[in-house]
Amino acid sequence: MTPSVVEFYKGKNILITGGTGFLGKALIEKLLRAFPDISTIYLLLRVKKGLSEEERLKILFNNKIFANLREKQPDVFKKIKLVAGDILDDNLGLSNDDVQELRRNCNIVFHSAACVRFDQSLKDAVNMNTKGTQRILKLAETMEKIEAFVHLSTAYCRCELEVLEEKLYPAVHSPAKIIDLVDWLDEKTLSYIEPKLISSEPNTYSYTKAMTEDLVAEYSSKFPIAIGRPSIVVAAYKEPLIGWVDNINGPTGLLIGSGKGVIRSMHCEPSYLADAIPVDIVVNGCILIAYTTALDRSKDVRIFNMTLSGIQKITWREIIELGEKWVNEYPFMVALWYPGGTIKSYWLTHQVAHIFTHVLPAYFIDMLLFLLGKKTFMVNLQTRISHGLSILQYYTTKEWHFKNTNFLSLQKRITKSENDIFYTDVSNIDLDEYLRNYIIGTKLYVLNEDMESLPRARELHRMRYWVDVIAKALLYSLLLWFLYTKCGISSIQKYLFSLVNVD
Prior knowledge:
The protein has a 7-stranded parallel β-sheet with strand order 3-2-1-4-5-6-10, sandwiched between helices. The protein has a two-stranded parallel ribbon with strand order 7-9. It has a two-stranded parallel sheet with strand order 8-11. It has helices at 5-9, 22-34, 53-61, 67-72, 96-105, 122-141, 175-184, 187-197, 204-217, 250-259, 279-296, 316-329, 347-371, 378-396, 405-409, 416-421, 431-446, 454-487, 489-500, and strands spanning 13-17, 40-45, 80-84, 108-111, 148-152, 225-230, 232-234, 265-267, 276-278, 302-306, 342-344. It is α/β, with parallel strands linked by helices.
């Protein structure tokens, strides 16, 4: 008889890499909360100087995502065991005792550790994303009781494809050869040939993720393996905290930057569909992928595109409009200016807007700070924001299509009551409500603004609105004055008349 999900995880020993990341924290929390009879969760973590293992875990579990567990099930954290090591080190930097324990006991591996910086050098990206995975695979190969290995990749691993199906695509280059290449080639030469090497992908992140999938598949005959490919992972839909998010990557940074009035232009095709998936949906998907992979024990690697794939349709324009609506309803306490600006379909119009709404204001603010004897920061901040936008805009100016039949099939492998617990169905998400909760979650968990401060935030928001109105009125008045003094009243009248009578 097929065990239920809870029955399957009873007594299991699980190794998690990337446990301090956004997805990793959510996965740990769900495993502890949903499976009271789980045996041990091993966390591969680097031990920082001056911090004991207990202090490292205490810092991790002080995150707000674990608040309910700390209050209602404090003893559950005894199931966590820190395994001191580093995915960048040969043999993972593990002690012999830890290696032997993992070999004897570990049943399931969730490998989510990766560098999500898109601008990392090829050497560093290969060492983390490809060689790091290889080190984990070699360890898993020696595990006596391993039942499932789940590797977290990305739905944006083959950007040149019109449609990404749930199948393995051969790597453009052999993983083994690229690993050898970055090991012996010097950094200067490698940086010179890097653009040619990764030409099939927009950055080293997606290049190494695509190559690593090929490496993972090489081990599929040795133990059951599955690859999960989430799209952009965003704030929690329902669990454990509605709207929970703890980083400023991707859309979250965009929401914060726009809400604080710092980002006022973005190169984006507004009619294209966006594909982003809540972190709790991805966590449930990972849990079910490991469950089905262990039961099926297939010799072929199975791939799951954890995506919306048109089941929920929302364009970038709609996201921006809903985001603006809810940022005005739940404004941030601290902001540079009143939110505004637009998304631009054309690169040139964005560049013009970028100069006038990003670059020049940044220099003006820094000039005022300099004159006042204060420390300048705005130009450096705007430079970092512009760099981040330039990376993100690759994904907002192209339409993406993913097949996700395998991911959808997970719902059919479990009972209705289990689907309520390990939900992966995105069709019921109210996107308007979700964006509202996303904004609130950003305030609570990223900016650490409690809801008690909302009345004051709204008051400040109204003040910023009137400052914005007055500033625009003064700017337009100056422009009209300039035209009047340079061109005369008749030219202004003709110009205004042409605006009124334009077809």
